[in-house]
Amino acid sequence: DVVASVEATKSVFDITCSIDGEVAEILCAVGDTVNVGENMIRLKTASGARAKPAVKEITGKPILHRRKSQNTLVLAREPRGHRAFDVGMSTVEIAKGSRIITNEELLGADNPMTSEDIVRRTGIRQRYWIDKNEDAISLSVHACQQVLEQQGLLIDDIDLVICSTTSPMSMTPSMACRILNGLSTGKETLIQAYDISAACSGYLYALQSGYDFLQSTPHGRVMVTTAEILSPLLDLNDFDTSILFGDATTATILYGENHFEHAAARIQRPELSAKGEDGSTLSVPFRNAGFIQMKGRRVFQEAVRCMMNSLNRVCDREGIHVDELDLVVPHQANQRIIDAIQHRINPRVF
Fold this sequence. Notes:
Elements: E1 2-7, E2 12-16, E3 21-26, E4 41-45, E5 88-89, E6 93-96, E7 99-102, H1 103-107, H2 115-122, E8 126-129, H3 136-151, E9 160-164, H4 175-183, E10 192-196, H5 202-216, E11 221-229, E12 247-255, E13 265-266, E14 282-283, E15 293-294, H6 296-318, E16 327-328, H7 335-344, E17 348-349
Parallel strand pairs: 9-10, 9-11, 16-17
Antiparallel strand pairs: 1-2, 3-4, 5-12, 5-13, 6-12, 7-8, 11-12, 14-15
Helix pairs in contact: 3-4, 6-7
C-alpha cells in the first residue's frame, strides 16, 4: 500500500510498504524535508515480519564508456551553428455544443451531491453538449472557418491539416479528411491531412507535429483542429465521469518562419511523454460500444506526478528553473490537479 507521497528535486513519487502492519507513529509532518535514510513512520507489524534495511546515500560519479561497434555507420554531423526555424501560432477559435448543462440539471432532484460539491472537486459549474443537429465534424468545420476568416486565409493557403480526436466519427475517411471536405465547398483540395489520437494531450501532440513539419517547410502553414464529442459516451449515473466531459472543437493556424509576422505568439517545441496503459485507469470506447470508464484517484495521482516531471524537463531543456516562471497554465480542467501543482511550485498556476 502507498504510505506517503514524496517530492524530490525533480520528481514526485509514492512510497509503498511491502509488509503488513499498522502505522503506529508518524515521525514527520506534511511539508517537512526528510533526509535519505531517516525514518518517516513507525509500523506495528506481526511477529516474524522482516523490515527492509535502511537506505544509505552513497555519492559518486559514474564513469561510462561507449563501446564502438564495427557495424556502426558513422554519419557526418550538422554544423553547430544550426538553429530551429521560428514557428508562430494564431489565436485559438472555439466551437462548442449548443446545449448548456448546469451542475443542477446533471444532478437532478434526488442526488445528495450538490452543485458546490462539483465546483470544489472540479471547478466546473456547467458544460456544453451537442444537440441532435450537431456533431464533431460540423463543429470543427465551423471552428476552422472562423480561424481562416480571422486570419484572412483560404483553405488553399494551408499545407497540412491535423485533427486531434479520441471520438472520431469514422476511422476512414479520417476526421481531418472529412473536415477538409467540409472546408473545400464543393471543390477538390489536395493537401496533407491526418488524425492524431492522444487523449487529453492530443492538442500538444498536434502542435509538436505541426512544429516539426514547419522545420522542413518554413514557408508553410498548418491548421490544427481538436474535436471531442464525449457526451454520447457518458453514463449519466456515473458522476466520476459525467460531471467532467463535454463537447467542443478548436482551430489554430501555425505559421512557418516565412509567415511569422502574422503570428500572435511564438511557440516552442512541446515536451511530451507517454506511459504504457492497459485501459484499466481511463478508457474511451468506440461509439455505441459502452461508456467512458475512469478511476479518478489514480488519474489524479498520475496526472500530478507526470505533469511535474514534464514541467521540470522542459525547464531543464530551456536552461531555466521552475521558480523563474511567472505563470504556469496546465493543460487540465480539473481544479484539484491545478491546486496540487500550485502546492508544489512557487509560480502562479492558472
